[in-house]
Design brief:
L-serine ammonia-lyase activity (chains A, B), Rossmann fold, homodimer, EC 4.2.3.1 (chains A, B), 16 helices, six-stranded mixed beta sheet, Threonine synthase (chains A, B), alpha/beta, globular, 14 strands
């Protein structure tokens, strides 16, 4: 296993942990898969499905050989993350008019978001290196995941959180797990820039997705999906695009599986951004090579409210190489799709629903065919952002709490009324 | 499988679904376990641990033979509930000063509470009977679970919710899943009384714990715990006491396992109530046979804010037979225990933390010995009640969002400061 610069290829020392190469490039973990046998590994992974009380009961560490083979089991900090539901919903499928639809609910992770898949690896790696203080900049999901794992490891967690356009629930969750939460005037992007420059000086272990071990852990989402589908993935996998670590990890995980012979063909990947925070979609749709950050990103989907996504070049390369697509959707479209996902009984936070809104759009644009099969990755739990429900459902009058006396007449009227 | 009155033993017809016997007693499902072989079943249950995409991937339906053997698989409405983490926490164990401590996190269920274990069975049973409208009275957790499963089954959900002392998040979750939410002036107990009398007239399928199929599903919590611990349970299992369906189900599940030879000895069970809503503890500690309802129950732990628990006689009998204990804890003790559970990285809602507060008290009262082993059942997710976090953490100044400029100096001060 090596840590190399994604841009210039220079190898970095693991003990001397940095997050950017001296050339400015992001780092990447490169595994040596020589000698690994796909059929043997598949059998091993199948056996581990019945684990419940060891580290291999985790939906991340069950694929340890492909994620961090060298880490000692005793360094692993796990909450049996992953193992999330892969659902079909006839309601959503038929509303979208697509042949086959899957929803992979990373929202069911222990802290309620897909961040847990990567965070368990970052915290475990940082602990093995001897760090005591773990930190991140976050719109909320990363910080609550960080705080949860740091608490499990009995380490200190510090979350840098923009003061605006974040979900209060996520901040409360972060505080409850015992993290120090530091608000600042600025955006997620400002926080990331700051840590990239000064994180080392501060002596903290940074758990944002610029940390390549986060990416290694997040690969497990698509491993798990593939394993559940007997190693035959749908035509498309659709994910929301915020910091773009998701598409980076998805791409890397797919690449691993193709290389090792777990899967025979590469599915296409679509990245959906919110219109008010869509620098990646703008770059890709205009055929540009470089990302122009959005200065003041703004969307109701707080988890995607990122104007300068760190992992854009990795994401660009992967989509270009594999025929992927991007699109952007409005806040209104996101909330409509969210209502559909919630009412299907699956439920998610706004950013996750962007995937369903995106499928709608990509079908209309004839980029996804109605005869194809699609899997959307739901990244965050419905309970993560109830402020948005309060605004959207209650204040906008889309739903309401009815009132009745406890009499048969009064209830009958409300029950039979539409 | 028979449905009989718990009080007078009269058998009821399943198709003609009622919730109370004509004598006023609660109903109970009685299985005929003749011919079941414990060792064979253990092997079957072990095999099913590796299921991911069938109904047997559920942590409830994986024990179908002991829960509802007759139900057709095609009637099952599941979201792979159960399969929750069974954790150790050295922080909590040492704070309590007990030899061994386990925490069973039903908070990790798909709707975020232990209600899912029973609800999947109730909704599946009601669907098999042909019902279109499903309802409950709820302080919030039952209603969101009901709404989620009804949405999955494409059926209508109606939640009767007291207007006071409930968690807004849970109401929003219920609304988001598409349920009709009807507020009324009164308590949970008023709602239950109403449905017991008029539910049938209204033609709705009632999913409260007076429904014996809820209890059957909830038995799976202790099956799963036992299976994870290789069929050797701790000395004590501690649960919060609200409607008391939890202790009823726990008792029934333990009884099943002892009868079938899955376990060799019966662990003791302790029920913890909140001081402001502790009619069951009062009855038990005063050695009375009958429950005196608390007229105006009041506790910060909204999930336990119940003054007239329906399942009290089943709970009484089980505890009396097996040497169980009860105790009550103050809201302050609950919130202290919650801080401990949250800061351990596991996290829960207030009612769940009452179990940890209860262990503390029962050790002090020498009812639980420090050399014994204990498992606490955490019933609800940390995100279920963020209002209480807002009040307790932010307004009370126990935690705060710090503020800093993005400079090394400013952050260093906050990071190194205690």
């Amino acid at each position: 296993m090596k840590i190399v610069c994604y841009e210039c290829g220079k190898e970095q020392k693991d003990g001397n942990f940095v997050y950017r190469c001296s050339c400015g490039g992001l780092l990447e973990v490169i595994h040596d898969f020589t000698g690994l046998d796909a059929e043997k590994l598949k059998r091993l992974f199948a056996q581990r499905l019945s684990e419940r009380m060891s580290v291999y009961a985790s939906g991340v560490w069950s694929y340890k050989e492909l994620i961090h083979p060298e880490l000692a089991e005793s360094d692993i900090v796990t909450k049996y993350e992953g193992n999330t539901g892969l659902y079909r919903s006839e309601q959503i499928r038929s509303a979208l008019g697509i042949r086959e639809l899957w929803l992979k609910a990373q929202s069911e992770n222990p802290s309620g978001s897909f961040k847990d898949n990567g965070m368990t690896v970052a915290i475990s790696h940082g602990r093995a290196l001897g760090f005591e203080r773990f930190t991140c900049t976050s719109t909320g999901n990363t910080s609550s995941s960080l705080a949860m794992y740091a608490a499990l490891a009995e380490k200190e967690a510090i979350a840098l959180v923009p003061r605006k356009q974040i979900s209060l629930n996520k901040v409360l969750q972060t505080l409850a797990y015992g993290a120090k939460v530091i608000g600042f005037d600025g955006t997620y992007d400002d926080g990331i820039r700051f840590y990239e420059r000064y994180g080392r000086e501060l002596g903290v272990y940074i758990c944002n997705s610029i940390n390549p071990f986060r990416i290694e852990g997040q690969k497990s989402i698509v491993y798990e999906m593939a394993q559940s589908l007997n190693w035959e993935l749908p035509d498309w996998i659709v994910i929301p695009g915020g910091a773009l670590s998701n598409v980076t990890a998805l791409g890397k995980g797919l690449q691993d599986m193709l290389e090792l012979g777990f899967i025979r063909r590469m599915p296409k990947v679509a990245v959906v951004q919110a219109e008010g925070a869509s620098p990646f979609h703008m770059m890709m749709s205009q055929g540009k090579r470089n990302l122009e950050p959005v200065e003041r990103p703004s969307t109701i989907a707080s988890a995607m409210n990122i104007g300068n996504p760190p992992s854009w070049s990795k994401a660009r390369d992967f989509l270009s190489r594999t025929g992927g697509e991007t699109c952007s959707v409005t806040d209104e479209e996101i909330m409509e799709a969210k209502a559909l996902v919630d009412r299907s009984g699956i439920g998610c936070e706004p950013a996750s629903a962007a995937t369903v809104a995106g499928v709608w759009k990509l079908i209309a644009e004839k980029k996804i065919g109605a005869e194809e099969s699609v899997a959307c990755i739901l990244t965050g739990n419905l309970l993560k952002d109830t402020d948005v429900l309060r605004e959207y459902l209650l204040k906008d009058g889309r739903a309401q709490m009815l009132a009745a006396d406890l009499t048969v007449e009064s209830l009958e009227r409300l029950i039979r009324g539409s």
